[in-house]
Amino acid sequence: MNYVTVINQVLIIFLLLFVGCGLFKGKLLSEAGVADLTKLLCYVISPCLIVNSFQIGYSQSLLWEIGAAAASAFGVHFAAMLLGGVVFNRRTVRDPDTRMYLRFSTIYSNCGFMGLPLLQAVAGSKGLLFGAMYVGIYNLLNWTQGISIYTKSVSRSFAVKGFLNPNVIAIAISIPLFIFAFRLPPVIGSGVRYIAYLNTALSMIVVGTQIAKVSPLSIIQDKWVWVGVLFRNLVVPVLWLLVLYALGMRGVLLLCCVLPAACPTGSFAVIFAELTGRNTRFPSKLVMLSTMTCIVTIPAVILLEQMLLQLH
């Protein structure tokens, strides 16, 4: 993968992001409209994108790569859980809410709204395929372990949401279709594909509206926001890149396993704060700064990956 190509695609993604920011600032898109778009993305467009990504030719080697992508997704989340728990403890971060937000941010990236468009842009159908596995596992863990960071326990309702998340269901449906080389009927397949095409633009518009809600000046003096972004945007993806490289992973698969982990803090940092009645100011600042700085950090991680591959 050409590094310049990655830079260009990141810039395109950010152009779409600022469109969303402008629409929200100009009051052409309301809070209610953003909420509706988010539901549309989570419950309709993203599942269609996953199903469509699995509508490709079956091969044993590709099935092995899908399994490797799934294992990597589990691995990076569990490694980030351990890292966040060790680094952001009661002695290093006194405030319990700040500690909680930092731990969540270290683990959960914006792999759906930002990761899938980027993977599609830089790696095509394979990128979507591997990204779909990451997003499915992300949703499963996010609605179980992720929400427990805020609630201190995993309730049955949230566990059910994790297992019955539309993206997890889409993967459960898509994998057998892929293995048995079953193609959706042309009319249905075309409909699913057209809906899937909506993902990139709408995802970035929604992310852009989140940025529009926070004043940049409120971030500058908050050191913990910068620390959280450092771990989310650089420490976790770089460490995971080195682990996967040491294990022998190369090529497009390596890129597609690292790129979702290099995405900025996920919007669920704010959503879960709202669900549990907590102050959303700090997680909103995390999301904003993490998203704004990833225009530099994502290419930096990919550049490191390219440099490692040249050594091989």
Short characterization:
With 312 residues, the protein is mostly helical.
What would you note in describing this structure?
The protein contains 13 helices and no strands. The chain is globular and about 55 Å long. With 312 residues, it is mostly helical. Helix 3 (60-87) runs antiparallel to helix 4 (96-107), helix 3 (60-87) runs antiparallel to helix 10 (223-246) and helix 5 runs antiparallel to helix 6. The chain has one domain: Na+/H+ antiporter like fold (Up-down Bundle), CATH 1.20.1530.20. The protein has helices at 3-25, 31-53, 60-87, 96-107, 111-151, 156-163, 166-179, 186-196, 199-212, 223-246, 251-258, 268-275, 281-311. Belongs to the auxin efflux carrier (TC 2.A.69) family. This is Auxin Efflux Carrier. Keywords: Cell membrane, Membrane, Transmembrane, Transmembrane helix, Transport.
